[in-house]
Structure formats: structure tokens, C-alpha cells
């Protein structure tokens, strides 16, 4: 089996056979043993561009990989040396575009410690035989729990009531809530995240529907239906799709008005999947009863801050002031447990690449 790697000339002796491995990117003749696999990994230099759970660094090092970190250099400075590395570990520090990939002449994999790969030019990376590694299974449980928490808070006015009481107001009737039982919950995007949310809903007497561009993804927790049936039945819309050209600004005025019922909207996917100004119009008209948003279209690519400048868009100002809206700062998958789990998934996938 061909094993892709870059090595300085190494000489191995095994059962009186000498194998010379020169500076080649692909070799087919290699005798796999724990000893020579460890030596091979010593030739794999991995550049860590973001800090992560320490187990990621420690376990890669224990497995024989050579770790180096650079959390502060500019993208241009990274580009000037990226040809020295066979692997990158990144979260969302900057976009890995065609120009970056062209400079990464020895790159064998890009590992993103997170679920999505939208910050990477995936198609171009594949043409360079660069393996793309992500960890959607690492934080799916956290996302499912966070989404359920948002739903229950909106249904029962928990945050609104808390704020009012702390301001000296004891309002019972205006905080009368809704029950999940008897509602139809609709999930768009039935992958790791959507399935996790559906599992959390098993304890409720609610109908759960899913819509996905892939066929046959429904299961015992959610019935897959057409978009037409989906929009005709759901009371709650929960988004769990990646950000792609197909999903960009997907939830706009036309899409929202296509629902037969007034809906609650939950978005723990990507902010750019929702047109905020159209959502605000729907909140004002009552077509959207309330919204729980963990992500916003105003986020910068790193997801660490919001605006590119100091101006506050009018639509976002409405979200800030509305008691129909619950906001969190892109933390649905950001738990202590998922922090560790994401790192472990990435380690396991990198190790598997060089062990198969």
C-alpha cells in the first residue's frame, strides 16, 4: 500500500533487508512495523495554528509526530514557511485558500478542530491530494443539548422572565409558556448535529421531521420528508446545515413565508444561512414567533468576534433589544467535554492516516 510522506533519506534494516527511502512523496515498498512507523511519523511535521486541548499536542507527540506551533504570525508569514510542513492543525484562524495551498507544496493533511470546513478551499485541496480532516462527531452532543436548551428557554420565556424579575417585575400571564408535546419539530440538515438534536427530543411527545438533500438519512428519531411536507407541518425550524453556496442566505423572506404555521426558529449552524433583516421582518409580523440564534451573519471568519468595524447593523440592533430573541456567542458546540472530544477525534484520525 502506498504511503504518502516526505522523508529525509532514512536507512532501515529489517531481516537482513535494507530499504532506502529517499526524499520521495510516495513509496510503495515499505515494511510496516511499530518501529519503522514511528520513525516515519518523526518525519511528519505538523504546524498548530490555534491552541486546542493539550491532549491533541501530547498524543501526537507520543505517537512520534513532530509538533510546532505558531499562534501569532500573520497569514503571509505562515505562507512563507508552510512548505516545511506535512500537516496543519487549525480551528478558524484564517481561510486556507488556493494561494495558501499552492505555497504548501508538501502538505498531506489539513485538520480542522471543529465540524465545518467552509474556511478551506476543499476542492482545490483535493486536487493536491491533501486529506481534509474534521471532527463533526466531536461536538455534536453539545450542539444537540444547546439547541434543546434554546428551545425550552424560548417556549417557557426563561430568559425573559429572569430579566424581568431581576428588574423588579413579577409578570405571570405575559410569561405563560408553550409545551413541546404535541408540536412538530423540523430539522434541516440531518447529519451529526441534526441527529443529535433529534435524539434529545425522544423524551417528548412531539413529531420530529427532517429534510436533507441526501436521501435515506431519516431514522427512528426523525422521519425524512419532502420540503413541501416539511413546510406544511412544522412548528419549530432548527437549522443544522453547513455553510455552502446552496445554504448561503437560504432562510430568507420567501423561505420563511413558505411555512404554513407561525414558527420558532433555531440556528446553531452558520450565521450566513439566515438573512437577518428578513428574520427581523418576520419577527415583527409574527410569522416567526421567536428565534434562538447561536450564530450570526455578522461574525468574522474566525468566529471569535462580530463586526468588521464598529457599526451595529439595524437588524442586529433589533435582535439585541427584542425579548423574542435569545442570543449566544457561537458556543453551541463549545463545552468542556466537547473541547476534549474534538481534540481526541482529530488525534485519532491523524494517527489512522499514518497507520493504515
Query: What is the strand tally?
Result: 16
Helix count equals: 13
Structural class estimated from helices and strands: alpha/beta
* Low-confidence blocks of residues: 1-32
Instruction: Specify Rg, calculated over alpha carbons.
Output: 24 Å
Strand order of the largest sheet: 12-11-10-13-14-15-16
Q: What's the assembly state of these chains?
A: single chain
Profile the largest sheet. Answer: 7 strands, parallel
Structural overview:
The chain has helices at 34-41, 54-62, 75-79, 98-103, 122-127, 136-156, 158-166, 192-200, 227-233, 253-257, 276-285, 314-321, 336-353, and strands at 3-4, 10-14, 17-21, 26-27, 45-48, 66-69, 87-90, 109-112, 131-133, 184-188, 207-211, 223-224, 236-239, 263-267, 288-293, 325-327. The chain has 356 residues and is an alpha/beta fold. The strands form 4 sheets. Strands 12-11-10-13-14-15-16 form a 7-stranded parallel sheet, sandwiched between helices. Helix 2 packs parallel to helix 13, helix 6 packs across helix 8 (192-200) and helix 6 runs antiparallel to helix 13 (336-353). 36% of the residues are buried.
Can you give keywords for this protein?
16 strands, 18% strand, elongated, five-stranded parallel β-sheet, alpha/beta, 356 residues
Amino acid at each position: 500500500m502506498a504511503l504518502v510522506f516526505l522523508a529525509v533519506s532514512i536507512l532501515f534494516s529489517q531481516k537482513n533487508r535494507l530499504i532506502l527511502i529517499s526524499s520521495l512523496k510516495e513509496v510503495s515498498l515499505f515494511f510496516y512495523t511499530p518501529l519503522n512507523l514511528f520513525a516515519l511519523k518523526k518525519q511528519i511535521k505538523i504546524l498548530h495554528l490555534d491552541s486546542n486541548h493539550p491532549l491533541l499536542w501530547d498524543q501526537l507527540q507520543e505517537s512520534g509526530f513532530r509538533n510546532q506551533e505558531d499562534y501569532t504570525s500573520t497569514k503571509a508569514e505562515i505562507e512563507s514557511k508552510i512548505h516545511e510542513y506535512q500537516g496543519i492543525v487549525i480551528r478558524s484562524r484564517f481561510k486556507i485558500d488556493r494561494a495558501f495551498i499552492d505555497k504548501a507544496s508538501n502538505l498531506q493533511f489539513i485538520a480542522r478542530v471543529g465540524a465545518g470546513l467552509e474556511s478551506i478551499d476543499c476542492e482545490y485541496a483535493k486536487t493536491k491530494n491533501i486529506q481534509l480532516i474534521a471532527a463533526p462527531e466531536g461536538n455534536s452532543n453539545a450542539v444537540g443539548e444547546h439547541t434543546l436548551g434554546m428551545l425550552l428557554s424560548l417556549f417557557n420565556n426563561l430568559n425573559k422572565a429572569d430579566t424581568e424579575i431581576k428588574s423588579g417585575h413579577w409578570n405571570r400571564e405575559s410569561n405563560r409558556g408553550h409545551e413541546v408535546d404535541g408540536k412538530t419539530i423540523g430539522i434541516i440538515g440531518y447529519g451529526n448535529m441534526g441527529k443529535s438534536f433529534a435524539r434529545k427530543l425522544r423524551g417528548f411527545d412531539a413529531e420530529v421531521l427532517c429534510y436533507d438533500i441526501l436521501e435515506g438519512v431519516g431514522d427512528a428519531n426523525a422521519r425524512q420528508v419532502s420540503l413541501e411536507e416539511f413546510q406544511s407541518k412544522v412548528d419549530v425550524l432548527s437549522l443544522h446545515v453547513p455553510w455552502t453556496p446552496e445554504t448561503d442566505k437560504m432562510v430568507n423572506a420567501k423561505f420563511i413565508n413558505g411555512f404554513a404555521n407561525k414558527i420558532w426558529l433555531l440556528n446553531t449552524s452558520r450565521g450566513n444561512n439566515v438573512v437577518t433583516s428578513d428574520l427581523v421582518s418576520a419577527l415583527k409580523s409574527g410569522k416567526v414567533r421567536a428565534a434562538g440564534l447561536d450564530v450570526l451573519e455578522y461574525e468574522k471568519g474566525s468566529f471569535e468576534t462580530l463586526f468588521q468595524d464598529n457599526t451595529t447593523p439595524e437588524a442586529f440592533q433589533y435582535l439585541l433589544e427584542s425579548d423574542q430573541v435569545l442570543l449566544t456567542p457561537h458556543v453551541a458546540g463549545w463545552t468542556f467535554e466537547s473541547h476534549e472530544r474534538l481534540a481526541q477525534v482529530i488525534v485519532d484520525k491523524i494517527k489512522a492516516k499514518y497507520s493504515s
